[in-house]
């Protein structure tokens, strides 16, 4: 019988290992390697790692101080007097709601740049109103004095026209102030830019007004004695462009700051959705066009009623009735876009078409009879009618754009904006109730 080579198996190697191990007794290591049915016990491995540390195990113990130490600069505070009975979750019923803030606090802007802007518009409006009122008073008192002394009616078309122009200039300043407050309250960047351009038109008109007022009033108004003050007319006509120019410079300086501030405030409630932001930009343009339509419609109607029409003319009563109806139509257009009402928007668009036909008819009539019936007022009526037609065309185009955006999420974004604006400045009585425990952290 041939001999076969011997190869140690795993059990043999394991037995030889334990035979040399100083941790295993000799009797345990003397296990027969011929028996393949007996398996080695692994309890010795468990005993090896479960045995306690010895002196030569090269392990040491360290005393670790577990007491929390405070910095030397901090003083220990006792919380024994803290009343934690009210702490708990969920919070209890809230107390009475705080009183609503007054209207002027909600309108007053919360930033320095916006406050300076509104203050500048207010000062400009106050000074220009005082100057224009003084010019009107000069003219009327001088006319009354001359008529009472001579017994003749010297009221001419020029004086009547100048009275209307000065009155429209006053109304334009009041309109500008109202639009400025509305632009700050609504965070309307486009409206702020439009008002800056509108103030530039004021500057140009105030410069042109210097020569017209001096020429018209030089024959009937003396420099002193006919107004509330002794300021000469030449000085009064010079004050207005200086004030408007200074205000325009301040608007430009504040423009960059207000532009970025409005953009950030709009971003906070619209988010980063470019689609919503694009729809909101169209909505702002549309809303701004409607507001300027109010001024140019009213300005044209007032000039036409006072300077052209007579009380015995049927067109006088039609124009007087059309003025408030046109204002109601513009309000309807604003509400239609705000509440996304297609029927109201369709009615408003039909009214815009009718208004364009009306202004085209008036413009044609003014140009046809500019040498007879409209000799003294055809220039201003032409300017107002052309501007009104241009604004109506733009309003009609943007009304179509806004109506196409109905139902795409802009209405919900505007509702969130209004709700956030109503909650601004309010206090919650129980928003910190669960944080009364001084050892807890709260993210408020």
Automatic annotation (TrEMBL):
<dbReference type="GO" id="GO:0005794">
    <property type="term" value="C:Golgi apparatus"/>
</dbReference>
<keyword id="KW-1133">Transmembrane helix</keyword>
<feature type="transmembrane region" description="Helical">
    <location>
        <begin position="314"/>
        <end position="331"/>
    </location>
</feature>
<dbReference type="InterPro" id="IPR040410">
    <property type="entry name" value="UPF0658_Golgi"/>
</dbReference>
<feature type="transmembrane region" description="Helical">
    <location>
        <begin position="381"/>
        <end position="401"/>
    </location>
</feature>
<feature type="transmembrane region" description="Helical">
    <location>
        <begin position="343"/>
        <end position="361"/>
    </location>
</feature>
<feature type="transmembrane region" description="Helical">
    <location>
        <begin position="231"/>
        <end position="256"/>
    </location>
</feature>
<feature type="transmembrane region" description="Helical">
    <location>
        <begin position="164"/>
        <end position="185"/>
    </location>
</feature>
<protein>
    <submittedName>
        <fullName>Uncharacterized protein</fullName>
    </submittedName>
</protein>
<keyword id="KW-0472">Membrane</keyword>
<keyword id="KW-0812">Transmembrane</keyword>
<feature type="transmembrane region" description="Helical">
    <location>
        <begin position="285"/>
        <end position="308"/>
    </location>
</feature>
